[in-house]
Structure formats: C-alpha cells, structure tokens
Write a structure and sequence with these properties.
This protein has helices at residues 13-24, 38-41, 56-65, 91-111, 141-160, 189-202; strands spanning 4-7, 28-32, 46-48, 71-76, 116-125, 167-172, 211-213. The protein is α/β, with parallel strands linked by helices.
Length: 221
C-alpha cells in the first residue's frame, strides 16, 4: 500500500538514502531540509527547503508546506554532531545539539500531530551513544546527552500516541559512512537506510517505544 512519508534532514546521508529507499518502493516522499542537494533533486520526490528544524521560522515553514497532508510515516532524522571532552567543555555546542537533536524532533511531532494518520508511525533516528548503559568511552557530552534526551522524549511519545494507534520507533542506524563522521564508519548510508526502512515497515504498537539497532538488536537505555 502506498504511504505518505515525511523525512527531515533529507538532503544527504541517511535521510537522503531513506528518501531514495521509500521512493523506490513506490511511496510518496516529502523530503525536508534547509537546503537541497543535487542528489536529492534527482530523486523525483517532493523537496521542501528552508526547514531549519531548530528555529521557529523553520517549524512554521514546515507546518505551512505540509498543511492538509496526511502522514503515514514521519521520520525525524535531522541531527548534528559536535565534539566536547572534559578538557574542552563548550556549553554552546552542547546547547546547540540539544536544540537540534532533542527539542526539534519533539517540536516536529507536536506540530505535525494533527497530520498523522490513524495507524501512522513515527521514527526517531537516534544513536546508541544516547545509551547510558552502553557508554564505555566517555566524552562527546553534547551528543550523548542530547540523544539520551531524544530517547526519553520518544518513549513518552510512544505512550502519549498509543491511543491514536501511532507507533514510535527509536533507531540507531549503526556507525554510518556520512559527512557527520568524515565518511568513516562500517556501514554505508544506503545499507543503514534499507535496514531502518524495513524496521519501520515492521513496526507495530506491540513494539512501540523500543530502542533498536538497525540490525534489529534491542539496545539498552
């Protein structure tokens, strides 16, 4: 069945790859981003630009562009990574990551709540670096803290949206070869996207609020 899919941060990396996968499956894709890319323009999806998810204007632009559109799958993918250590704490970059990685996805879901169709799905692209139990190396304070906050928000959303038959998936894509990590990584964006899209399609209310690796492994909080 053809679905209407909305993806944030869709101009590159995992977001772009997911847009391509959903489009190849015959779904109607709305790709949201601040600025488009040549690769995104070639996909033949609906590209919506000027969507800075961390700003009031960006959220207004999103609401206007998607007005009256019923959404079956909402993928909150936009995110940023900065690097702080205990020897070099930068509260500004930590706040920036909270705004983009944690507060923005919650604001997006809240703003588009009326657009979500019955039996719809929300997918949060998070990171196992947001796992407290899995932290073995320290550092990356802003990224770890913001992704842990995102996980907490996603769990609350899974409870609050349950009565609307809307399931929430919380997904770590893996160590993906994207610009965010200077193209280091052990899995391509396309491979990660295929796995996450499969998980989204298989998501039901029975597994709403479960934190998963793209390989299907349940991750610790």
């Amino acid at each position: 069945m053809k679905k209407t899919v909305v993806i944030t941060g869709a101009n590159r990396g995992i977001g772009l790859a997911m847009a391509e996968v959903f489009k190849s499956q015959g779904h109607l894709v709305y790709a949201l981003c601040r600025n488009s890319s040549e690769e995104l323009n070639k996909l033949g999806v609906h590209v919506i630009t000027d969507i800075d998810v961390a700003t009031t204007q960006g959220i207004k632009n999103m609401r206007k562009a998607l007005s009256g559109i019923g959404i079956d799958i909402l993928v909150c993918n936009a995110g940023i990574l900065r690097d702080e250590s205990l020897a070099d704490i930068n509260l500004e970059t930590i706040r920036e990551q909270f705004e983009v990685n944690a507060l923005a996805p919650l604001n997006i879901v809240d703003t588009l709540q009326c657009n979500l169709n019955l039996d719809g799905k929300v997918a949060m692209i998070t990171s196992r670096m947001g796992s407290i139990a899995d932290n073995e190396s320290g550092g990356r304070y802003g990224y770890r803290m913001s992704k842990a906050a995102l996980n907490a928000a996603a769990m609350s959303l899974s409870k609050d949206l349950y009565s609307q038959d809307i399931a929430v998936g919380i997904y770590h894509p893996g160590y993906v070869q994207t610009e965010m990590v200077n193209n280091n990584g052990d899995i391509s964006a396309n491979e990660a996207a295929v796995k996450i899209v499969d998980l989204i399609h298989g998501l039901t209310l029975k597994e709403t609020g479960v934190f998963k690796h793209s390989n299907g492994q349940v991750l610790p909080w």
